[in-house]
Structures are given as C-alpha cells and as structure tokens.
Amino acid sequence: MIGKFITFEGPDGAGKTSVMHKVVEQFQSQLGDRMLVTREPGGNKISEQIRRVILDRKNTEMDYRTEALLYAAARRQHLVETILPALKTNKLVLCDRYVDSSVAYQGAGRQIGMQAVAQMNEFATEKLLPFKTIYFDIPVEVGLNRIAKHRDSSKIDRLDVETVAFHRRVHQGYLQIINSNQRRFLVIDATQPIEKVVEDTTHAIHQIASEFFEEDSL
C-alpha cells in the first residue's frame, strides 16, 4: 500500500462528522480523486445495508455480540472493496470511524471485552490499522446535550439513545485505547468553537499527509 489512511474517532456529540465534512470541502478542489472520504459502518452497498440493520432503533432485541460481529462484517467488506483499493492507488483515505469505535462502543460500552472485540477485528481487518487517528475529545454530558439540542430526530440511532453510563464507559474505553496507542493518536479538543476545531484538524492532516499537499497550500 502506498496511500495514507487516516481515521476520525470520538464519542457521540463530539462533532467529528461535521468537522470532517468541512475539512473535506477545503481539500476537495486540490486533491480531487486523490482523496477518498468514507465512513463506518458503511462505505459501499453491502456495508451500508449492514449499517441500516445495526443502527435501526427498532432492533432493540439485538444481542451485543451480534452487534459487534455485524460491525466487523461491515468493516471487512468496506476494507476489501473500498479502503484497500484506494490505498493501493496512492489515495489519501479519510474514514469516519474504524476499529477503535468497535473496541470502545462494543468492547467497553457493551462490556463484552475490549480485547475480545479487538481480536475479532484483527481477523476482519488482517490487523490493518490507520497511519494516524484523529480523536475529538469532549465530556460525555456535553456531547449528549449537543445531540439533544441540535441533531435531527430522524438521525438519532440506537446508540445515541443509550444510557449516560454506557456513554461514560465508551469514553473511558477510548481513553484506554489512546493511552495504549499514543503514537497513532492525535487528540483535538472538541469543546472549542467548530471553526477552531476545523482549523486544528486541517492543520493536523496537512502535517500527517504533507506529501499530498503542495508547499504553498500549507
């Protein structure tokens, strides 16, 4: 692989998806088809179908291990059909969530074991990890208040309506992952105004993937 793989992670309400969209708008004219922007679960037809099953608020009876396996299945299809081909053709791949989300949400949040979920995803991804992961940090209550105030009710999924205790476990899970992978993670304060978060993120990607940008764009 000769491209560069960067993932965006964060607890619910951190604003990472909104920030990612704004950053991509800035990069699009310069990078064009040298950049792939994708998400998990999803990113292609099969993975998007699995996404709908996972996040459907009607699927309240879904077993936690079933949920974790579905995420891993969607990720496997996403990897082989979307991410790997892009990396092999020297593209900058920006992905909204990846393995760390499963380890934090299902491993820590669902309490089925961070190591068990990590091992499941090692099988699904053949141990492929991002070159760098940008983590948007925000206190749990602040993130959930943002969702309650600003997110369209039609976009609130099964995980958004989980208990505060669940989201606190997810946040702690992320902190454990970061502590164990400090060289891979870059942490951004998501409590800042969105303009500042976008600025910090744009600067970070320029530094991480400098080979994709001309010197006069920095």
From TrEMBL:
Sorted alphabetically, which keywords does the UniProt record give? ATP-binding, Kinase, Nucleotide biosynthesis, Nucleotide-binding, Transferase
Reactions it catalyzes: dTMP + ATP = dTDP + ADP
Q: What does this protein do?
A: Phosphorylation of dTMP to form dTDP in both de novo and salvage pathways of dTTP synthesis.
Q: Which Gene3D superfamilies match?
A: P-loop containing nucleotide triphosphate hydrolases
User: Native species of this protein?
Assistant: Lentilactobacillus raoultii
Q: Which HAMAP family match?
A: Thymidylate_kinase
Ranges where the Thymidylate kinase-like domain occurs: 8-200
Q: Check the record and name the PROSITE patterns matching this protein.
A: THYMIDYLATE_KINASE (PS01331)
GO MF term set: dTMP kinase activity
Instruction: State its Enzyme Commission number(s).
Output: 2.7.4.9
Classification via NCBIfam families: DTMP_kinase
Query: Which positions are annotated as binding ATP?
Result: G10, P11, D12, G13, A14, G15, K16, T17
What Pfam families does the database record attribute to this sequence? Answer: Thymidylate_kin
Query: What's the protein called, per UniProt?
Result: Thymidylate kinase
